[in-house]
């Protein structure tokens, strides 16, 4: 990411030339302004990619999982917006399918912070924490292998940065060359030197800007090509917030290759010191570097190897002799500084590991019976939280001992090698005499204060005089006010000056200066400091005093802008702060000097100097407890560490500040960044205390993101497994066996809560093995948990082998409660193995033990398990007795955390009532269970019981009540952020509202279906999404909004096509067509879906059954629309396909439909042929009398065709006689028989004269008509009698018809003639089935 703001190698050109190079920073203001005028897109795309470290290419399955998760969380825009607010970016839009976020920025500061987070890996880690499902954190192998990479267009981001600089009006730049007064052509031109810092303002001209020198304040015009905007946004922010000069320029000639070195050097000139604290050098003298020698400073501290004297040395006066850079793993810190920084502890108190584990994973598994949650007879399993033994989610994280400081508290800073609290001084007596307690010179010489201050070398007693907090006010001179102390020290100063006690003189002046500075009397303080420095002593005999004098005096010079005196002392003060390792801060004003040095590092582009200064500034702010101010410098320091690592070409990481950064982000209430930096903490020297601090910090920030974890209404975040495993790894390196066991139990319980039972069993097994090394009691709890987990995983036999030895070992102890627990678990094992009698005995033993010990909760649970056992065995009445007694006990435990067990018992009781058909009692049980779950705010229990109530009311056809409970399920699912279940319940609600069949309910159904559609899209379930699009289209069709219906149906089809599943696409096309085909409006709209969609897919996958079905629908559709010619084509194809299906029913239907079309087209010969073909495919024997109705209808039609259209009365008579035979079989349709009689009478009266037969059929028709008229007019009381008369008539007619053999003699000849007519068009005439009539 450093390449984003990389500074290019600049070259000077002409006045109107622009700098060359590809970097956007080299472009002039005209180019930038043209970009703005051309409406450069102010948005930037952040792309994320999921990949595995074990492979080079992105992992498609992982990427799809991330997309799905993003679609889910995208629906809750509040969370994702808050994420990017923490990342200092403004979210414009999310495009899950393209794996991108579109962001924008409004200020330079936003770009600065976002680019910093991006380079430090926080953006990628935030997305990892945000997008990865909870189950991801439970898979250690996947966790190690997975990573999320994020990328942005760096050039475009740099363009946005420069555009915002111009938009803000003014920004900082540095001069690329020197421009003297002689070079000025215009009086308004400003003179400057190379690397001078200026604040410039765009004047709207292409060639000049307005510039102001930061050092002098001079104002004028500067050429655009002479200015380079400072490349890093951090620089713009720092210089704007902390304006000032940058100090002296470095020497031109550089003899040292490395920026920071240690070792020794050799003098190259003779030098006489200008002050008492400088070393005198002769050419060739060897000087040992004290601390560090830095390229950005002209002075360092050395020790003359001949004389042993220490003092300041000018870098220009020496050359390297045995100089070497810092170790690659240090770069800009010494080993001592790195170690001391690692010891920074922002906690106000030490966390208690045992309290933390007890608070998170408090377990009563060894003292409370387990309810049988793995019951196979009931589907009403409650929440996935751990069973009754897990009470941790109920305990608020803020109601127990909290090792972290509350919000608003001040954090403590413990830097052992830098500053130590000298508690022993607090009990020392004051080191000065009472006022007027001495007289004359003898009294002055006996003054203990004077004697104390006159030590030549540094003493530990002097630390309160020099430290940052002015501890001498209450430790050394505790009984005097500041005014009294000032008077006393003034006397000491005069006395020391008069008696020639130089060190007492210097120290007294220094303390007086500090007192004046505390009162903001800086001029008076400056006088005292200057006097102290003028005292002729070897200052390096007391280095802390020398550092304090130089830094305090320099700070005052900077405050008072005394530029004439500043250069004389600035470099020495800088060397004392930067070059001596483990600097102890003496004054809060030192930050002014450090800011100046940071400005110098900016000008020089010296990253190592910048890093060291940032380290000191951030450390000082931590000591001053200014967490708000220290954060930017720690971020910059971490950024520089990564930058220097890339520059050096090797994996060097001198610092890992992620732990401190996570704490600082926590203080600023930025939970996403706090968790990201915490997860990036890669320090390998963790102690167990550090591991538990990480767990605590993780919990507190997780609670901020999901308050349910605080309120106890949800599980602990699964990511806690990562930190528990880290703590376990640290604990395994030590000797605390009990802590190892507790951590294993915590991991087992966490895995159990999330259903990862196999991992829970492994952790519990490890806890058992670890606990066996402590004592029997510690191993007992782990063994019980292991047994319970084995029961849950179906390993009842293995669980029994673990539990039985425990029960045996408890026989000789006074532990009845633990015996009851083991009896209960053994009962569950035996029940799963089908040994009901033995299970009952163990449960009875557990019940008796609970009664004797007076444990009411265990009694209730034992009775509940007995009820469950009886229910499983089919003894419902016995089960109800046990369950009711259990409920009575639970009612007395209302305030105890037993809501899940209480609800479960109500569900079992309701199941028993359901088996016995007692619907009202079922309702009462379920509703009581819901009330208890609501009272306990147990969301999972609420959802289970509300769903059962919804199903119950739906079965009772009370749809309104069912809707109420399903709506509660939806609200609970949303609170739990369970999108899958929410979608399921929304579909149920939509179906229920649609069944109410009103316009209002239909629109409500439409709304819920659209919500379900949104969830299907979010979850990436294409099949469900397509079906939901289809359902929305159906509802729109029902409420007569056909245009919207068509739009949604088309969307369903498009979604199905994207799945590349022809079978599914075929079904969606057909169902979309069915919406119109089965409706009453716009039925022809289905033709497009059938013809252009389903039919081609059916042919492509050779699904002949679907093809036949679609051809039949198209045929019927066109027939109804009277488009007979086109219908004929599809009907002909249907006949061909029907022959391929091998289903006679399909063939008969196809021939019948084809015959009907021919009939409508008045092609009667073809119609007759296909009707006969259809009849030939009918079953040889009637399965039911009503089947004869089809024969009656077809033979009547054939008779009408031959009689009226083909003019063949003889054949017509044959068909009608066949119709008569069929009609006599169908007693439920007497009207058809009446019509047949009349047709036969007509034939024998007009076409084939036979008066006897004509009169016979007329008489029978008339008598049948009278009977029918009697049935229609008679009341209900006489209807049965009339129907009996009709039945008698049918019997008589059938008998007489059977006697008339001569009447049917011509049937065979009639059929033969029909086949001859059909033979004109078909080569294979059909055979008429006669056996069934």
Automatic annotation (TrEMBL):
Does the keyword section mention Ligase? no
Q: What are the start and end residues of each TPR repeat?
A: 1148-1181
Every copy of the SH3 domain together lies at 168-232, 260-323
Protein name, per record: SH3 domain-containing protein
Q: Give the UniProt keywords, A-Z.
A: SH3 domain, TPR repeat
The record ties this protein, via Pfam families, to:
TPR_8
SUPFAM superfamilies assigned: SH3-domain, TPR-like
Identify the Gene3D superfamilies for this entry.
SH3 Domains (2.30.30.40), Tetratricopeptide repeat domain (1.25.40.10)
Q: Which GO terms describe its biological process?
A: regulation of ERBB signaling pathway; regulation of intracellular protein transport
Lineage in the entry?
Answer: Eukaryota, Metazoa, Chordata, Craniata, Vertebrata
């Amino acid at each position: 990411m450093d390449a984003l703001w990389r500074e290019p190698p600049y070259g000077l050109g002409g006045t109107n030339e622009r700098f060359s190079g590809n970097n956007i920073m080299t472009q002039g203001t005209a180019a930038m302004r043209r970009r703005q005028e051309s409406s450069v897109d102010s948005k930037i795309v952040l792309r994320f990619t999921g990949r595995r470290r074990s492979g080079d290419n992105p992992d498609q399955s992982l990427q799809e999982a991330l997309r799905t998760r993003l679609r889910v969380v995208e629906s809750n825009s509040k969370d994702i917006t808050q994420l990017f607010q923490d990342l200092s970016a403004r979210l414009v839009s999310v495009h899950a399918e393209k794996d991108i976020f579109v962001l924008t920025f409004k200020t330079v500061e936003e770009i600065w912070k976002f680019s910093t987070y991006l380079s430090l890996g926080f953006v990628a880690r935030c997305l990892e924490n945000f997008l990865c499902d909870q189950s991801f954190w439970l898979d250690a192998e996947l966790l190690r292998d997975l990573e999320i990479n994020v990328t942005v267009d760096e050039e475009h981001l740099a363009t946005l940065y420069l555009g915002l600089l111009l938009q803000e009006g003014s920004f900082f730049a540095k001069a690329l060359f020197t421009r003297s007064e002689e070079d000025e052509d215009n009086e308004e031109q400003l003179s400057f030197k190379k690397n001078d810092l200026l604040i410039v303002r765009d004047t709207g001209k292409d060639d000049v800007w307005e510039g102001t020198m930061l050092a002098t304040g001079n104002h004028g015009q500067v050429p655009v090509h002479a200015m380079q905007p400072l490349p890093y946004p951090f620089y713009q922010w720092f210089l704007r917030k902390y304006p000032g000069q940058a100090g002296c320029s470095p020497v031109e000639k550089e003899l040292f290759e490395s920026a920071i070195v240690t070792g020794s050097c050799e003098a190259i000139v003779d030098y006489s010191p200008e002050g008492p604290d400088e070393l005198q050098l002769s050419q060739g003298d060897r000087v040992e570097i004290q601390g560090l020698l830095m390229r950005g400073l002209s002075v360092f501290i050395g020790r003359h190897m001949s004389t042993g004297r220490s003092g300041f040395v000018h870098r220009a006066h020496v050359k390297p002799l045995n100089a070497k850079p810092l170790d690659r793993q240090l770069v800009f810190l010494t080993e001592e500084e790195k170690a001391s920084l690692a010891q920074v502890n922002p906690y106000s108190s030490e966390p208690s590991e045992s309290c933390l584990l007890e608070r998170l994973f408090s377990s009563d598994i060894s003292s409370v019976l387990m309810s049988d949650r793995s019951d196979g007879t009931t589907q009403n399993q409650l929440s996935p939280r751990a069973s009754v033994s897990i009470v941790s989610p109920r305990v608020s994280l803020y109601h127990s001992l909290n090792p972290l400081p509350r919000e608003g508290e001040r954090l403590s800073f413990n830097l052992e090698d830098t500053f130590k609290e000298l508690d022993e001084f607090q009990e020392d007596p004051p080191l000065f005499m009472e006022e007027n307690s001495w007289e004359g010179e003898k009294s002055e010489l006996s003054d203990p204060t004077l004697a104390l201050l006159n030590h030549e070398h540094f003493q530990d007693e002097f630390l309160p005089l020099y430290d940052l907090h002015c501890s001498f006010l209450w430790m050394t001179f505790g009984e005097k006010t500041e005014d009294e102390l000032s008077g006393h020290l003034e006397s000491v100063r005069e006395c020391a000056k008069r008696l020639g006690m130089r060190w007492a003189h210097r120290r007294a002046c220094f303390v007086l200066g500090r007192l004046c500075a505390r009162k903001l009397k800086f001029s008076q303080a400056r006088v005292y400091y200057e006097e102290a420095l003028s005292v002729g002593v070897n200052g390096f005999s007391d280095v802390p005093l020398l550092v304090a004098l130089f830094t305090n005096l320099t700070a005052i010079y900077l405050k008072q802008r005394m530029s004439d005196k500043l250069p004389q002392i600035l470099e020495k003060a800088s060397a004392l702060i930067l070059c001596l390792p483990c600097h102890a801060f003496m004054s809060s004003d030192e930050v002014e000097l450090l800011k100046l040095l940071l400005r110098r590092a900016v000008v020089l582009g010296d990253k190592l100097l910048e890093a060291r200064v940032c380290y000191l500034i951030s450390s000082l702010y931590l000591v001053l407890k200014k967490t708000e101010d220290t954060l930017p410098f720690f971020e910059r320091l971490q950024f520089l560490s990564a930058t220097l690592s890339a520059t050096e070409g090797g994996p060097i990481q001198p610092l890992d500040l992620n732990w401190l950064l996570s704490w600082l982000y926590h203080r600023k209430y930025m939970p996403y960044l706090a968790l990201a930096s915490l997860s990036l903490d890669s320090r390998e020297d963790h102690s167990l205390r550090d591991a538990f601090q990480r767990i605590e910090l993780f919990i507190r920030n997780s609670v901020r993101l999901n308050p349910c974890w605080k309120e106890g209404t949800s599980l602990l975040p699964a990511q806690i497994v990562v930190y528990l495993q880290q703590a376990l790894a640290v604990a395994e390196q030590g000797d605390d066996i009990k802590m190892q066991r507790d951590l294993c139990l915590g991991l087992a319980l966490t895995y159990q809560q999330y259903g990862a039972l196999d991992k829970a069993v492994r952790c519990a097994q490890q806890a058992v093995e670890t606990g066996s090394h402590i004592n029997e009691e510690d191993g007992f709890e782990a063994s019980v948990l292991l047994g319970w987990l084995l029961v849950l995983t179906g390993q009842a036999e293995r669980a029994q082998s673990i539990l039985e030895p425990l029960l045996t070992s408890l026989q000789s102890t006074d532990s009845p409660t633990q015996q009851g627990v083991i009896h209960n678990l053994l009962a569950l094992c035996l029940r799963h193995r089908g040994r009901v009698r033995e299970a009952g005995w163990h449960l009875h033993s557990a019940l008796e033990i609970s009664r004797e010990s007076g444990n009411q909760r265990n009694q209730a649970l034992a009775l509940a398990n007995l009820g469950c056992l009886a229910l499983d065995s089919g003894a419902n009445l016995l089960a109800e007795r046990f369950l009711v007694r259990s409920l009575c006990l639970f009612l007395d435990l209302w305030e105890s955390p037993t809501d899940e067990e209480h609800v479960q018992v109500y569900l079992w009781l309701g199941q028993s009532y359901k088996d016995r058909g007692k619907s009202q009692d079922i309702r009462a049980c379920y509703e009581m269970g819901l009330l208890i779950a609501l009272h306990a705010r147990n969301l999972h229990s609420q959802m289970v019981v509300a769903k059962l109530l919804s199903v119950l009311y739906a079965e009772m056809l009370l749809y309104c009540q069912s809707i109420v409970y399903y709506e509660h399920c939806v609200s609970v699912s949303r609170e739990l952020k369970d999108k899958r279940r929410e979608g399921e319940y929304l579909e149920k609600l939509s179906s229920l509202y649609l069944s109410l069949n009103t316009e209002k309910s239909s629109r409500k159904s439409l709304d819920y279906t659209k919500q379900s559609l949104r969830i299907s899209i979010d979850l990436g379930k294409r099949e469900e999404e397509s079906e939901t699009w289809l359902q929305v289209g159906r509802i729109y069709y029902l409420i007569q909004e056909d245009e919207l219906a068509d739009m949604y149906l088309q969307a369903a089809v498009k979604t199905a096509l994207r799945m590349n599943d022809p079978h599914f696409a075929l079904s969606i096309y057909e169902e979309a067509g069915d919406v119109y085909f089965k409706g009453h409006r716009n039925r022809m709209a289905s033709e497009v879906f059938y013809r252009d969609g389903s039919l081609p897919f059916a042919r492509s996958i050779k699904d002949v059954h679907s093809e036949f079905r679609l051809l039949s629908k198209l045929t019927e559709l066109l027939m109804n629309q009277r488009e007979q010619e086109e219908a004929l084509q599809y009907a002909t194809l249907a006949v061909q396909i029907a022959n391929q299906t091998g289903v006679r029913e399909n063939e008969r239907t196809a021939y019948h439909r084809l015959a009907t079309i021919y009939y409508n087209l008045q092609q009667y010969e073809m119609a007759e042929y296909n009707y006969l073909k259809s009849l030939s495919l009918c079953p040889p024997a009637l399965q039911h009398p009503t089947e004869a109705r089809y024969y009656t209808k077809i033979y009547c039609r054939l008779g009408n065709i031959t009689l009226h259209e083909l003019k063949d009365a003889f054949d017509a008579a044959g068909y009608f006689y066949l119709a008569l035979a069929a009609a006599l079989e169908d007693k439920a349709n007497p009207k058809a028989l009446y019509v047949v009689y009349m047709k036969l009478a007509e034939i024998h009266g007009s076409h084939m004269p036979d008066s006897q037969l004509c009169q016979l059929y007329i008489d029978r028709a008339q008598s049948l008509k009278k009977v029918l008229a009697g049935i229609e007019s008679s009341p209900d009381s006489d209807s049965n009698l009339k129907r009996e008369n009709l039945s008698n008539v049918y019997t008589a007619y059938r008998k007489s018809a059977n006697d008339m053999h001569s009447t049917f003699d011509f049937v065979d000849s009639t059929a033969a003639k029909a086949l001859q007519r059909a033979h004109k068009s078909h080569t294979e005439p059909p055979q008429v089935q006669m056996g069934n009539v």
